[in-house]
Amino acid sequence: MTTEIRIDRVLPATIGKVYDAWTQPELLVQWYCPNPKLELKVKADVRVGGDYVVEMGPHVVRGTYLEVEPPGRLVFSWKWDGTADDPTRVEVELTSVPEGTRMVLSHTGFATADDAANHQQGWDPEILRLVELLSAQ
């Protein structure tokens, strides 16, 4: 089992719309939680060194933007409140393709394969919600 997550998907939208969905809090609150029943709050200062906080009901993840290169690249740290785990790293690479935008999401730095698998179970439904949001625009 691996300690990294990689999701490679073509999304049905322009690169600008996909980048906006990753960086605008009013769009993030529409998809950035695997459980749509949880209340979702997002604060994001999208600039190198800027912080973000995502509240998914009782679960809170926060981090810092490490690289911000619109509209093709976004890198940020990821750390759950209430854990002693070291922060992990999320990289989002976007490229225009004839069908829309190719998104390659890498989430690395997990201490164990189980931790990576648990996060994969969170990312999968989130990405489906992202596709629904982009398809509706």
Walk me through what this model shows.
The protein is of the alpha+beta class and 137 residues long. It has one domain (5-136): START domain (Alpha-D-Glucose-1,6-Bisphosphate, Chain A, domain 4). Helices cover 27% and strands 41% of the residues.
Keywords:
single chain; 137 residues; alpha+beta; Alpha-D-Glucose-1,6-Bisphosphate, Chain A, domain 4; 7-stranded antiparallel beta sheet
> Separation of termini?
37 Å
Rounded to the nearest angstrom, the radius of gyration is 14 Å
**The CATH top-level class label:** Alpha Beta
Q: At CATH's second level, what is the architecture?
A: 2-Layer Sandwich
* Strand arrangement, major sheet: 1-7-6-5-4-3-2
Share of helix among residues? 25-40%
CATH topology: Alpha-D-Glucose-1,6-Bisphosphate, Chain A, domain 4
Mean pLDDT: 96
Low-confidence segments: none
Number of helices: 3
Largest sheet report: 7 strands, antiparallel
Number of E-state strands? 7
